[in-house]
Amino acid sequence: MSDLVRDAIDRQYDLLVESSKDRNVEEIMNEIYHEYPDPPRMPLRDYDVHNRNQARTAILRKLRKKR
Amino acid sequence: MFTIAIRREPPFFASFARNGNMILLDTTPLVALCDPRDYLNKTAIRHLKTLARSRFAICEPVLTEVCFHLSAPSQRSRLHRILEALNVSPVSVDDACSLWKEVFDWLNKYRDHQPDWTDGYLAVLCGRDREFKVWTYDNEFRTLWRKPNGAAIPMALRS
């Protein structure tokens, strides 16, 4: 009987921790975005950072500008 | 050898921290997290929720790449804040020359596929410590790159 109760408490605790974790991640990220907003009319990146070739080309372009 | 620098008590997500795998951050998820206008931003936040109990680490090559892509002061301030919030530990390498040699060897092995220094660095770190898993949106880590011994690179997320 006590094992059943303990299991139920553990499950409930895990659910609580999971839900508060999800909420905190969202909240904290939103707080950071709110704290450091982009300036108005900041242009979007003109390349896809998740595309390996485009990202590499962008880095090379930036390095060339420094020379 | 290399070590993970110890950080102070974490301010945010770390209240959920558990012992276990160390997540090595790659450039792509970090850029996505730092830029709410990035098309993978929501995906990265969703993934962060699943990884929030993990410990995170970052190496200098990744941080350098991220700063190339996040050039605005607002973006870099967010990056700094997110690294703090995630309690990300720096990977500090004691035997840098030996690590460099391993990375150069790795780059040479994959030269036909034109890997970057960061790719090799992460692959070699994973080869040195079985605790490391990589959080990346770069498909090459699943399909192409391997540890120096030929084993698959452990991923933090399932595909």
Blueprint (SSEs and pairs):
The complex is a heterodimer of chains A (67) and B (159).
Chain A: H1 2-35, H2 52-66
Chain B: E1 2-4, E2 22-25, H1 27-34, H2 41-51, E3 55-58, H3 60-69, H4 73-85, E4 89-93, H5 96-109, H6 117-128, E5 132-135, H7 140-143
Parallel strand pairs in B: 2-3, 2-5, 3-4
Antiparallel strand pairs in B: 1-4
Helix pairs in contact in B: 1-2, 1-3, 1-4, 5-6
Task: Give me a quick take on this structure.
Chain A has 67 residues and is mainly alpha-helical. Chain A is built from 2 helices and no strands.
Query: If interface size is counted as residues with C-beta under 8 Å from the partner's C-beta, which chains form the largest one?
Result: A-B, 26 and 35 residues
Q: Give the biggest beta sheet of chain A.
A: none
Coarse shape of chain B? globular
- End-to-end Cα distance of chain A, whole Å, is 74 Å
Number of E strands of chain A? 0
Count the DSSP helices of chain B: 7
Describe the structure.
The complex is a heterodimer of chains A (67) and B (159). Chain A is mainly α. Chain A is built from 2 helices and no strands. Chain A has one domain. Helices cover 45% and strands 13% of the residues of chain B. Chain B starts with a strand and ends in a 16-residue tail after the last helix. Chain B has a 5-stranded mixed sheet with strand order 1-4-3-2-5. In chain B, 37% of the residues are buried. Chain B has 7 helices and 5 strands. Chains A and B meet through α1 and α2 of A and α1, α2, α3 and α4 of B.
